[in-house]
Amino acid sequence: MPDKLKILRVAVVCFLALFVCTAILWKAGKIALPWEKKAAKTPEVSIPTIVNGELVLPKIGEDLKLSGSAPTDLGSVNSYLSVLSVNLVGIYSADPQSSGSSVLSGVRILGEAKNMGNGVVTGILPVARFIGADGTTIAQKLPRNSTGYDFYPLDSDEPMVYDLTVDGVPPADRLELVLNTQTASDDGMVPLKIASKSATPSSVSANGQNYEVYTLAGSVVNTRDLPVSDIAILGWVKDKDGKVYGVGRQDFPSDLISPGEKIDFKILVLPVKGGESLDSFAIRAWGKEYHLK
User: Fold this and answer.
1) φ and ψ of 122, to 5 deg
2) CATH topology of domain 189-289
3) CA–CA separation, 62 vs 136, rounded Å?
4) Which of 83, 86, 123, 233 is most buried (most C-beta within 10 Å)?
5) Which residues, 6 or more positions from 105, have their beta carbon under 8 angstroms from its beta carbon?
6) What is the CATH code for 49-182?
7) Model confidence pTM above 0.90
8) For residues 86 and 74, what is the distance between their CA atoms, to the nearest angstrom?
9) Where in the chain are the domains?
């Protein structure tokens, strides 16, 4: 009988030790209990993306204020283009020098520009200048097209969205964006007419909050004299101040539409940040002409 009691005491001590160790590991987040639902790790994205029904936004902060407010005077803009609006969004990444904190690693610049010249603008060569408080240029950067964005030929007196990203932002008082233009080269893309368009907002969740996303739908008609293919359609949404806060696109690389024919599109536009509300939207389309024999 004493041997059985000794065995029982050893079993109880082992059970208590196992319970204590499990509790310590659970509290430290090292293990999950069987009845606990393991939360899925949120993926890091460079553009707004819907993952498993959840809106995942890039790690961005509030509007980047390089001069106390988003600059309206963008300095020497090429005479062919007039900047209609600008929206600056800071992009943040993990600080390698400090665990748990983030640093400004880039800035995304969205807006609209209008071709004020008589010729067709086939491309832009943007330059971002970072200006100090004394007015001197601290650094110049060449912005790249943001993921999913391309510039297409722009006819005279027509508006166009731009979506640029600058990496490696230095400390500065303000940012000056210069949109130089290209007019000599031509990749064969021609503008197409939007026959119909609509915008339908819907709600998705992210981090326990609801955000508006938008479905831009309609049709494009070929009013050219030749069939067109390689069709690209850009759609963007604007707030009450005319600032662009979301850009989307749809491509039809293999569809060939004859003169007079239409093709339907449906573009999902996600916001670059939360707290925005749709006031207006715009859609542009292009295609490449084909001389068929």
Assistant:
1) -100, -5
2) Immunoglobulin-like (2.60.40)
3) 26
4) 233
5) 91, 92, 93, 167, 168, 169
6) 2.60.40
7) no
8) 9
9) 49-182, 189-289
- Sheet with strand 123-131: strands edge to edge: 137-141, 123-131, 174-182
Tokens 């490449």, located at residue: 288
CA distance 278 to 276: 7
Token pair 């430290």 in the structure block, residue: 28
Please write the tens of the pLDDT for every residue from 14-54. Answer: 666 666 666 666 565 555 555 555 555 666 665 566 666 66
Confidence of residue 137 (pLDDT cuts 50, 70, 90): confident
**The tokens 């029982």 sit on which residue?**
8
> Please, which residues have CB within 8 angstroms of residue 100's CB and are 6 or more apart in sequence?
none
Tokens representing 10 are 């050893």
Residue at 218: amino acid letter: G
Q: Is 89 helix (H, G, I), strand (E, B) or coil?
A: strand
DSSP 213: E
**pLDDT for residue 186 is more than 60:** no
Q: Report residue 167 as tokens.
A: 């990496």
